């Protein structure tokens, strides 16, 4: 199983700009779109969202793998 096909990136739901934050962001850092100012909650929220996205993807990969047997 490869994990390099799981995209973990965030784009603004309003304008599509890639979200960015500084390297020293911590869990309580508020993340907002640099382009339109849309707020996305904290760095911690984004990390949790990423974890869930990866988990969902992993589950579907595993299901596919077992389907093919
Ligand atoms: Zn935006």
Structure overview:
- The protein is of the alpha+beta class.
- The chain has one domain.
- It contains 1 helix and 2 strands, in the order ββα.
- The chain has one helix at residues 43-67, and strands spanning 30-32, 39-42.
- A two-stranded antiparallel ribbon has the order 1-2.
- It is elongated.
- The site of zinc ion (ZN) has 8 residues, from loops.
- Zinc ion binds next to loops.
Bound molecules: zinc ion
Structural class: alpha+beta
Q: SSE order, as H and E?
A: EEH
Overall mean pLDDT stands at 87
| Whole-number tally of structural domains | 1
Specify the number of helices.
1
Q: What portion of the residues fall into strands of 2 or more residues?
A: 5-15%
In whole angstroms, the N-to-C terminal distance is 14 Å
Strand order of the largest sheet: 1-2
Rounded to the nearest angstrom, the radius of gyration is 15 Å
Shape: elongated
The biggest sheet, with number of strands, parallel, antiparallel or mixed sense and barrel status, is: 2 strands, antiparallel
Give the helix/strand layout:
Layout: E1 30-32, E2 39-42, H1 43-67
Antiparallel strand pairs: 1-2
Zinc ion (ZN) is lined by residues 12, 14-15, 17, 33, 35-36, 38.
Describe the structure concisely.
The chain is an alpha+beta fold and 69 residues long.
């Amino acid at each position: 199983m490869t994990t390099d096909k799981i995209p973990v990136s965030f784009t603004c739901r309003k304008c599509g700009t890639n979200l960015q934050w500084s390297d020293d962001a911590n869990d309580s850092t508020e993340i907002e779109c640099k382009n339109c100012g849309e707020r996305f909650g904290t760095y911690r929220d984004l990390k949790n969202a990423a974890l869930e996205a990866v988990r969902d993807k992993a589950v579907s990969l595993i299901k596919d793998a077992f389907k093919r047997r």
